[in-house]
Amino acid sequence: MVVIGFTGSIGMGKSTIADRFLALGVPVCDADAIVHRLYEGEAAAAIEAAFPGTTSAGKVDRVKLGQAVLGDAHGLKRLESIVHPLVQAAEREFLRKSFEQGATMAVLEIPLLFETGGDARVDVTVVVSAPAKVQRERVLQRPRMTQSKLDAILNRQMPDAEKRRRADFVVDTGGSIEESHARIDAIVEVLRNRGGRAYQQFWS
Under CATH, what is the fold of the domain 1-27+104-204? Predict the structure, then answer.
């Protein structure tokens, strides 16, 4: 089974491309979705202990937590030390199930794939990208998003050009959806008969 590390900066179109992987029958594990579930319960107590006042009724208040760690590198590292091991456990379980079900490839969608060294635990990396102008327009359309918030997020993320340089495959979403889909179709076809070693080496 080929383990695909899939990433891209904010506003680059990861969800659209993830949906295409799924449409092609390739299972996808979304790290952001895992974090959302953890914030709904499992991780809440530990986060409240580290960042008092950031939870309510046993759930993390994402706005308050964001305010608590925004611009605080030390606080962000504390949060990551709580959340990342739980996310990796969920990813391991996802890959185990995918392998047992006979999947020839599986996708780990990880926003900070390169930043956290996650690219060392996958067989290939796929980066979704778009021109900076398109990215900015997309992100600023989101509710409660501001230019300063976007700048803070981008400062945490590796520059798009560096991600593209490190990637095995790049999917440009600056054009039409059909063009993006065609690129993913081609990547899946290339990987369909390629063996992988990352699952046995790092996840099984």
Answer: Rossmann fold (3.40.50)
